Amino acid sequence: MGADLIDGYVADLGSRLQGSRKQVRDLLTETRDSLTDATEAHVGRGLTEREAQERAVDEFGPVREIANAYQAELAVSYGTRTLIWLAVVLPLMHMAWEYGRMLLIGPWQDFGTAPPSWYLFVAKANDLTSGIASGVALVALVLGRLLARRCDAKLLARLGATVALAAVGAVLLGNLSIIAATAHLDPARLVQSLPMTFASAVTWIVIVRLGLLARRCLSCATIVV
Amino acid sequence: MKPDALRGHLDALLLATLDGRQLHGYAIIEALQQGSGGALDLPTGTVYPALRRLERAGHVASDWSTVGGRKRRTYRLTPTGQKALHAERTAWREFTTVIDGVLGGGGKWAQT
Description:
The structure holds two protein chains of two kinds. Chain A is mainly α. Chain A has helices at residues 3-16, 21-44, 49-60, 63-104, 117-146, 153-185, 194-222. Chain B has a three-stranded antiparallel beta sheet. At the A-B interface, helix 2 and helix 4 of A face helix 3, helix 4 and strand 3 of B.
């Protein structure tokens, strides 16, 4: 009967949290442990089980206030994980695609006539976007660590989510631009090599996945618990 | 002591509590309360996000282990955390020396 109080508190807390399932589970395990420890300590001081649990829950703090503090940390953690993914995956994905293109299609200049300068500009900009987005994610990670104690966790989480969304948005725009430019210049090039068409599809799946991660970052950082 | 007055010092208090030992969450809370003679009146739930914040800053590291059939997350100071604690102690001594000079018995404020 008495266990219902702790179970109820932990369940209420869990229902308000959003983030990595493992992180939420860890926080809730720790919360349950703490409440159980506090209950045992109060029972040792002469309270009944029920009274001890009431005291333990009361001392732990209002569930809304605690959920807010937990959620801020979960959001920062989710943002950090997403930024790591962006910093690592974006350049790797771009390099893999470019290597595949050179291997299977060859340089752009080998298409009979050299592409116009505007096309090369779009291609160059797209090449740079992944590197810049990855670099920005890396800088955000370093700043996040340096500011961990100085900056409010909620603000840090929102900044991380914004950087992640902007980075994915820039890569998305870069890829759309090069596809649109290629389609305008010579649509046949888009489907010239089946393996490269497949590689492009994989690239898009990865970008969409990263976009969903970034969107969830923002959701974690802005959720009202 | 009111929670609001403590919040700004919670990180330093946690670092000091973990100085030279490895503790799980509730043991940290108990050590904080014992160390203050029961004067620290903070919702115990606020300690866990603060520990996560310190972990993010690289000042604290944690490990899960099973103790008495229950999973426990234990925390310890990292070398960076040790340096941060030293800096916090130095800053606190300077702060209290200055404030004590004004509010303490010998200053002009005490005589008015």
